[in-house]
Predict the structure.
Amino acid sequence: MGYQKRFIYGCDIGSTLRGNFAWVRCEPGEDVPPIGDVTIKSLIKYLLKDFEKRCSVSLGFESPLFLPIPKTVGDLCKGREGEGDRSMFAPAGGYVTTLGIHLAAWILREIRNAANQYNFTTDSLKWPPPDGKQIFFCWEAFVSGSAKSRRTVDEHIRDAATAAIFFQKNENRLGEVNAVKTAQPLSLIHAIALWSGWSTEIKGLHEPVLVIKPEQPYHGTIIIRSN
């Protein structure tokens, strides 16, 4: 089975007012450095260009994209399986979750009208897409601990690259690298997809979201593109 032209994006979620947002885009099968920038407007420009070319797009956000809804009261307020000591219910996790919903909703709304023929999904079995399928696949990146960049000048864009490159290297075995799970998820990204018009399927609110968790930071070249 062949695969159509596709691009993988990783977004480091942070305040756009404080310059803490960044994104990176890479192309599977091409031996070229990833490109990226630190403005959300340039991300929209590149996404729109790829949709216009009818390329499939994989877009990852470094913020929690689903909530665990346990069956028993004793499991309420506990972090998700695989998060370790960085629970999404901790103060920092709660902040980035809220900011991630805010930014992801804005991004998905801005690009919706350019992609009427695309299928939105969070199903890792649908990526890479086969020829003829135009897929918009959203996933979560968990870049923490040893994977975080220690550089102070470009740490945000490097964290975005860490997520995108790890996804690229593992795109044919995504189920094996899924790092954070729950039996009964409430999908925040699917709620955003409903809000922004990407989906009308209510059942998607109950579907799992892929979470990739790199162990090492990306140290390679990143080409900065602002337009």
Summary: The radius of gyration is 16 Å.
